[in-house]
Each structure stands twice: as C-alpha cells, then as structure tokens.
C-alpha cells in the first residue's frame, strides 16, 4: 500500500532525503531545523535494527558544530514513490559502490521536475544522466553535485548524529549547466553559503578529500589490511613521504583543471578555505585537520583490502580523471600509477587502461563523455545534449 505523506504550508521547501548515511542524516536534521519539511526515505529492510530506530519517533538529536538540538522530521518512510511524490528537491548521499543499486531502484521514479542533489557525488551526476539517457529518458532532472559534503558527521546512537565540521563554502556544479541559476536558487535555500561552480566536472576536480583519501588508502594498503577499520588514514598513514605523493597527485589535478579552463587552488589552500585545516603546506594541513584526523579506513568485517572496498574506493576516485586526462592530452603519471596499484589491490589484475580498460570505477563511457574533445565536452556539460564521439 502506498504511504500518503501530507504536505504542510509551514516549510520553505519539501525535501526528500534518500538513503541516509551519517552526513545525510545530519543534513536532514539541519534542513528540518531551518524550517523545511523533510521526508526521510530509507530502503525497505527485512529486519529492522538500531540503525533505523529513529523511524518511529521521527526525531533526530544533533550535537557538535552548531550546538545541541533536536530536529523533528515530517515523515520517515520506506515507500519511495510516496517520498518522491511530495518533494521537488531530493538529496541523496550514496557511496560509489552503492550507486548501481541506487540508480536501478530510485532513478526510474525521478521526474524532470525534480532537482537531485548529490553531496560530494564524485561525478554521480554524469553517471545518473547516462543511466537515464540509455533508457530513453531524454529530459533529465536537474542534477547537482558538490565538491564537499555540507556536513562531516558520525552517528553516535540510532537517533543521534554528531557533526564534526561544516565546510564554510561548499561549491556546487549543475548538470546541465544551463540550469545553474535556477538550481542555485534551490541550493541556497538548503546551503546558504554554497558557491556556484561552472559545471559538474569542476565540482569533481575541486573535491580534494577523495584524492587525498585515495593516496592514503593505496600507499597504506598493508596497514589497512592488518588493522582494518581501526586504521586512521591520515593520523596513522599520512607521513611526509605519503604527503609528497599526494602533492604530486594534486599538481596533476590542478593541471587537468587548467585544461578545462579551471583555476583550482592547491589542496592545502582548499582545505584551509573550507575551514577544515590550518593554513600550512599539505602535510601539516592534513595532520592539523581535526576532521581528517578522525577518518578511518571505513572497513568493517573481513579486513582484506581487496574484499572490503578500500582500494575500490580509491579507483572510483581516480579512474575517470585518468581517462579524461588521456582524452585531453594531459600527462598524469602519478594518477596512472595510483590507478594501476589500486586496481591490482582490488582485483589482482592490472589489465586495461584508465579510459577503456577493465578497472573498477567509472569509465568515460559510464559518464557519457567518451571521445569528446574539449569544445564538444564543454557544450555537453552546458546543454546536456550528447555530441557525436570522434
């Protein structure tokens, strides 16, 4: 039976928050506290557990940055159709490894009227647009991607989320970019400090934390395998030598951005600008970040890296940029080496290449930009209209 969720006339917007991780739950609570009507959707589960206990009360406790508080959600449901029918704005925080399931379950019900916001989506906007286009959905919803999640948070109880940090000015790119002005009017209701980025590739390249995480995961593969989820990626693994590799990778990121007419600040400057670290060179900035200091390898259960997604996560970050750099004629030896190592750690194979090979992660074909030279790529990002591949 379809759940009927009532509309109210109190909130500025009705927002459906889909598939809740810790940061997503913090985002839902903040939106509710700001006066929006928030509907929380979680996929049906065969057995209810402590992780979804807040469904009954619709109350989320919040602590940390911004102080203590309680948010009252409008509704919590496992009925996706009900959640999407009452909201024009959707927020979905989904890890890369879960995006295929998310796409097959959620995207068929997303309509052109929706604005789908993907905090730190790592080019999920382009993957979702390709998924829809391949199934005959020629008019996509407005897809928005940020360079960093608006909240860095962790759940300390089933109905209690602790916010470790709120980046000062998260950036947002829109696909297609010609809808940017309208989409940013929505975003600024959700994140008043949000800044406008030229397009979704700018959002992906501006997100420095996944690049830093990829280096830390791959270069500390032995420690992650041995210690598992207790391994702190940055406090334990970000040594001066690892920082040197990260700085070289960051230089390639900036160079690739320049090929797309983007002026990207270095990673250390970006972290400081977001209020996540002190102003310092990269090693000191990362080691001085209270947010990054707490981050673990996020591996549970069997600690072997190849079976727990640590290396896969690194590959999801790096692979599309290696392919795009090759397509644009930008040399990225560190990215390529990191991709090869991560792929070998994840699958035991180094077959393929960054653009067309068999590595896990998103290829340019997955993103719908395979074979597009610079001018065609910029046109596609602006209009969403596919151009013939060369």
Outline:
By secondary structure, this protein is an alpha/beta fold.
Order of strands across the widest beta sheet?
5-2-1-6-7-8-11-12
Q: Can you tell me the overall shape?
A: globular
Gyration radius, rounded = 20 Å
CATH class of the largest domain: Alpha Beta
Provide the low-confidence segments as ranges.
1-11, 47-54, 299-309, 352-357
The portion of residues assigned to helices is 40-55%
Distance between the termini: 49 Å
Q: Please summarize the sheet with the most strands.
A: 8 strands, mixed
SS-derived structural category: alpha/beta
Strand content: 5-15%
Domains, number: 2
| CATH architectural type of the largest domain | 3-Layer(aba) Sandwich
Secondary structure: number of strands? 12
Per CATH, the superfamily of the largest domain is NAD(P)-binding Rossmann-like Domain
CATH topology of the largest domain: Rossmann fold
Number of H/I helices: 18
Describe this protein's structure.
The protein has 390 residues and is α/β, with parallel strands linked by helices. It has two domains: 14-206, Rossmann fold (3-Layer(aba) Sandwich), CATH 3.40.50.720; 208-359, Orthogonal Bundle (N-(1-d-carboxylethyl)-l-norvaline Dehydrogenase, domain 2). Helices cover 43% and strands 14% of the residues. The protein has helices at residues 22-33, 54-57, 80-86, 99-106, 124-134, 180-190, 200-206, 208-219, 221-227, 240-259, 267-273, 282-287, 290-293, 305-308, 310-328, 333-347, 364-367, 374-383; strands at 14-18, 37-41, 59-64, 69-72, 75-77, 89-92, 115-118, 142-146, 152-157, 160-165, 171-175, 195-196. An eight-stranded mixed beta sheet has the order 5-2-1-6-7-8-11-12, sandwiched between helices. A four-stranded mixed beta sheet has the order 4-3-10-9. α15 (310-328) packs antiparallel against α16. Mean pLDDT is 85; it is low at 1-11, 47-54, 299-309 and 352-357.
